[in-house]
Amino acid sequence: MSNYQQDIDTIATLKAAKDGTWDGINPDYVARMKAQNRFKTGLDIARYTAAIMRRDMAEYDADSSQYTQSLGCWHGFIGQQKMLSVKKHQGTTDKRYLYLSGWMVAALRSEFGPLPDQSMHEKTSVPALIEELYTFLRQADARELGDLFKQLDAAKANGGDVAAIQAQIDNFQTHVVPIIADIDAGFGNEEATYLLAKKMIEAGACCIQIENQVSDAKQCGHQDGKVTVPHEDFLSKINAVRYAFLELGVDDGVIVARTDSLGAGLTQKIPVSTQEGDLASQYNAFLETSPVTSLSDINEGDMILKLNGQLAKPVRLPNGLFKFKAGTGFDRVVLDCITSLKHGADLLWIETEKPHVGQIGDMVRAIRKVVPDAKLVYNNSPSFNWTLNFRQQVFDLWQEEGRDLTGYERANLMSAQYDESELAIAADDKIRSFQRDAAREAGIFHHLITLPTYHTAALSTDTLAKDYFGKEGMLAYVHGVQRQEIRRGLACVKHQAMAGSDLGDTHKEYFSGEGALKAAGEDNTMNQFNL
Prior knowledge:
The active site is at residue 220. Helix content is 48%, strand content 11%. By secondary structure, it is of the alpha/beta class. The chain folds into 2 domains: 1-35; 38-267 and 327-403 and 430-459, Alpha-Beta Barrel (TIM Barrel), CATH 3.20.20. The strands form 3 sheets. Strands 12-6-4-3-2-1-14-13 form an 8-stranded parallel beta sheet. Strands 5-7-11 form a 3-stranded mixed beta sheet, with no helix packed on it. Strands 8-10-9 form a 3-stranded antiparallel beta sheet, with no helix packed on it. Strand 1, helix 4 (76-90) and strand 2 form a beta-alpha-beta unit. Helix 6 runs parallel beside helix 8 (190-203) and helix 11 (329-342) packs across helix 12 (357-368). The longest helix has 34 residues, at 125-158. It is globular. The model has no long low-confidence stretch (mean pLDDT 91).
């Protein structure tokens, strides 16, 4: 017996025990409302989605073609429409997640207005967005199940295939999927990280991504001026997130440890080493230093270290920050990743300056010498110029192969004049297969695009505004938007229903019977879309 049928029987039994005082309650309707509200709390969602992620990670370990994907969403409606589209076109939500980008929270959700990605926005806006996303996803469940219940009633009344519709209800796949949520660098010390992590988990987050930058000097991963913290500081925040998961009973919670060391050339402080070769000593070995052979080498306020048995003076900038040696980024990334995985992280995030399978794969192979099942969450970032990067990669490959590159100018390969060229087509093929190739060759379990819907909103608005305020007028909207919604079968064309009017009518009918004042009558203009 399905949960739906069990709930009908349970409520009917409960109703019968109330001596007629519950005669206005229909057990079937109660069971429907329970089915439409499967997840009662954010913690229910976090536990459910954590199990999904753990299953997906195990399946990826067994077969790298089983990688996962997500798009960053800055509003609940965007996340809802994304998952409705995924389910419509792919037939399933399996291995499709949501990503919550700190960049987009800062740029689009702060009460201060648009902000740079520097942890300047209100930290409460992060759990608020998680809750909003799941509110919209749960509403998508309720709306689609509501349609199935209407079909079930019609089938019962008209002799339709009741069993087939009942099977769809019993096997309904929720739109609620895992969210990988960005906590930036923790918004303060480890206690602040713990408190914020709790709020995010309570809102539904099963996976929290945290980075090894200094919290009060945090920069976007694709900008200059990044400053990392010593491993001990970062590990305390990983512990803080794990404690939050365990306290709230989300034992399978997933932590993504992000390293910005590939592009970060500075550190805020020098950790204390207690013995040669310890973690602090390994971190300090990457510092740019000058030798100290006499007191004359030491200036007022200088700091002196003993490294490998020698005295050395770390290079210190006027702002008090310390420099790393040039060319140490690769090795620092590898050490960061190994250390994080050995101290409680589940997945890695390596922020790179370009999307290059070979570069990423080299780092992952070095990590896997120590942690064989290491795997990545990777940012397929809009900050990369994908077209130019991959055209240059193909150019360089062809150059190594000795192919004739007459007619191609490497620095100008972004030009539209190359769009139909053999090189551009080859580059597009590499972009098309990038996620598949990187999952196989570079250990990438999850591919995400951090802020695609920021760009799609800008692009679609530009297209509409250009023509609507130009000579096309209303046709710009009709041809470019509404007609496309109708032709492509977007449920959102009936925006009143998408916003919940049909659900509200159904509930009014449950509560008030034939006396319900409903919105979906003959004069509802949404009927024009019943095509």
